[in-house]
Amino acid sequence: MCHRAIWRLSGMAIIVLFCLPAIAQDCTRPELRGSFLQPALGDAWTLKQWSNEFGYMKDAELNQMVLQWTADSKEKTTIYPSALAGYTQNTKHDVVKRALDTADASGAQVYLGLQINDDWWTNYISDRPWLDNEAKVANALADDLWKRYGSHQSLTGWYLGFEVDNVESTPAQWNNLVVFYRTVGNHLHKLTPGKPVVIAPFFNPTAGLSPSQWQTMWEYVLKRSPIDILALQDGVGAGHSTKAQLPAWFSAVQNAIQHSRPQMQFWADTETFTLDYEPQSIRSIVNDMCAVEPYVSSYLSFSFNYYMSPQQVNPLYYQTYLDYLATGKVERPGPTVPTNLTSVARNSQTIRLTWDASTDNVGVVGYLIFRDEHYAGSQRNGTTTFLDEQLEPGTTYTYQVRAFDAAGNQSKPSNVTTATTPEPRLYPTNIALHKLYTATMPADPSYPDTGRIELTDGILGSTSYADPAWQGRATTKTYSFTIDLGSEQVIKEVRSNWLQDEVSGILLPQSVTALVSDDNVNFMAVGTVKKPSPDNDTQSLWYTLTDLTGVTRRYVQVQVKPGANAEWTFIDEIEVRQ
């Protein structure tokens, strides 16, 4: 989910999923029954694609869709033509109507999410007035939705999108949450009798309350709250947890439900993605469901629609899952070994790999690239080439490649190849030093910008996120910095320095694009740096565009695309060199 994986800076377990060996399936035949859908994807679908999607879901035995939100109360936007005062629709289509119309025709069920608000991650359950206002917004939104769509047979229930985690909290804060759940839950039950209310909390085993403490919290909250279904995020895809940690947390919540509100349903929210925002292997998904099978009665997913549907990803994932449903087992044979791996340095930061394709009994979906025996990335576009970028100049690297299929089976490693990046061309003058800049998004107050000079002061931070040289933002939205060089300048290199601290939830941006302008209005892109693939150690890395030709402008903009899960991005310096 867009807002499900925002990590508080107190620790997070990280695993590289594709580097793990295959794990045996250890239970019977758990099945996904539903999927979360974020509005942007549904808005992009044609009516035919909506129909196809519900058809794919039905064939895979999923009959539930949770439309994750219908409004953003911070931005004052909706995904349908709302009558709420002050709100505007920010989607091309009425996404709610399209979901309900298609579900009506296919016999599926739809749970409508109410609002999201990015301020939740700052205010959380500590700010009672803010929560009280959001409860009023939720009730008004539900009234509007029910008036407009209440005749749809597929409208099955409601989803509350504020995701509660196990961060340290007090009974007074728990009570704030209870008041919110009571205000909204009682209103929904009165408005739509018999239609359940769903929540989807998450946990981080390395931070906050322990399983037993979290059980105490949920016993307190659920005993006093009219919630009908708790769908607990397993956190494996987001890197919060591992399969081995799931029983302790799911059993704690199960105990809380049994002790406080036994009439509730307890579901799993199974994550079907990896930290690289790629599909998780079918065997991993099944194993994660198996780990929580003793505790839950059903399985939602985040998300079939993004990471298993043949409309979004390689159809081999869908076919492998259908084969699992038919046989009760995930297929085993692995691909053949990739052969003839070669490597050539293209410049001081890039090495190009090529190899001969593997084969598989069902089909190869991609290749895993290993640099110096560490996972460096994957290739999934059907080609047998890979560009390893943002490397250190003047450095020798060793590579191997493995093929993998949708089940999670891997080939044995290819032959070993080595290549050396040449020394870089040096551009000695940082013409951005001490220049002012503007930002389209303010830094978080806990990790602030200081006076519009912090990113051009020439001071690099340590690898501690607490170092004041770093400024942090937790968002999924693209943001940018614009530097005024003071006059037209020849630009040969643009680079920015970023922090990776995965255990604290600070990840590298998905991409950084450099743009230039002579009027601070019309900008031209000069290049994009995609997320490099370092090892998992805490470190700082430069995103560098170098050897630019024919670029002469006054203004330089650095546009940042964070990850899809609202993790933190930390930056401490931008340089423009000639």
CATH-assigned homologous superfamily of the largest domain: Glycosidases
**Which term fits the overall shape?**
globular
Main beta-sheet strand count, sense and barrel state? 8 strands, parallel
SS-based class: alpha/beta
Query: What Rg do the Cα atoms give?
Result: 25 Å
Mean pLDDT across residues: 92
Cα distance spanning the termini: 42 Å
What's the β-strand tally? 28
- What order do the strands of the largest sheet run in, or round the barrel if closed? 1-2-6-8-9-10-11-12
> What name does the CATH topology of the largest domain carry?
TIM Barrel
- Uncertain runs are 1-23
What does this structure look like?
A hairpin with a 2-residue loop joins strand 15 and strand 16. This protein has helices at residues 39-44, 47-59, 95-106, 120-123, 128-149, 171-191, 211-223, 246-260, 282-292, 304-307, 315-327; strands at 34-37, 64-67, 71-72, 77-78, 88-89, 109-113, 115-116, 155-159, 197-199, 229-233, 265-271, 298-302, 339-347, 350-356, 364-371, 374-379, 385-388, 396-405, 417-420, 437-439, 471-474, 479-490, 493-500, 511-517, 524-530, 539-545, 552-561, 568-577. The chain has 3 domains: 32-327, TIM Barrel (Alpha-Beta Barrel); 339-420, Sandwich (Immunoglobulin-like), CATH 2.60.40; 437-577, Jelly Rolls (Sandwich). By secondary structure, it is of the alpha/beta class. It is globular and about 70 Å long. An 8-stranded parallel sheet has the order 1-2-6-8-9-10-11-12. It has a 5-stranded antiparallel sheet with strand order 20-22-27-24-25, with no helix packed on it. It has a 4-stranded mixed sheet with strand order 5-4-3-7.
